[in-house]
Design brief:
This protein has helices spanning 4-50, 54-117, 125-131. By secondary structure, the protein is mainly alpha-helical.
Length: 132
């Protein structure tokens, strides 16, 4: 039969075993938590390593401003060329109109001179089309 001292010793051994098991479980849990926290810290660090700095953003901003300025200059140049081209077309149209008008005047003069002198004037059909 077990005596009181024996039961106490068994209870104490069981308490020690449970405490030992709890300590081992706590150590395992702490170790796993430490590993997880370290893994998260590495992930966060990598995220910060890949994040642009203010200097990086300033460089990009300056580059975009340069592109914008170049685009504005190109736009001004294109508008200038467009204006000049339209003006040249207007001048060409004006010259063509004036030349056509002058050709009609010359044709009438030649026809009147030919009539006065008594000459038959044959005006080529291509010339007639150019005058109209």
């Amino acid at each position: 039969m077990l005596e009181h001292n024996d039961l106490q010793a068994i209870g104490q051994l069981m308490d020690e075993k449970l405490t030992s098991m709890e300590l081992r479980m706590d150590e395992k849990m702490d170790k796993k938590m430490d590993e997880k926290i370290e893994g998260l810290a590495i992930i966060i660090k990598e995220g910060f390593d890949r994040t642009a700095t203010k200097e990086d953003l300033e460089i990009v901003k300056n580059d975009l401003n340069n592109v914008k300025n170049n685009l504005e200059e190109l736009t001004k140049t294109v508008h200038g060329i467009d204006f000049k081209l339209k003006r040249q077309l207007e001048i060409s149209d004006d010259r063509l109109f004036e030349q056509t008008r002058m050709n009609k005047i010359y044709q009438r003069w030649f026809e009147k001179i030919a009539e006065k002198v008594g000459i038959q004037l044959d005006v080529p059909e291509s010339f007639q089309k150019g005058i109209q």
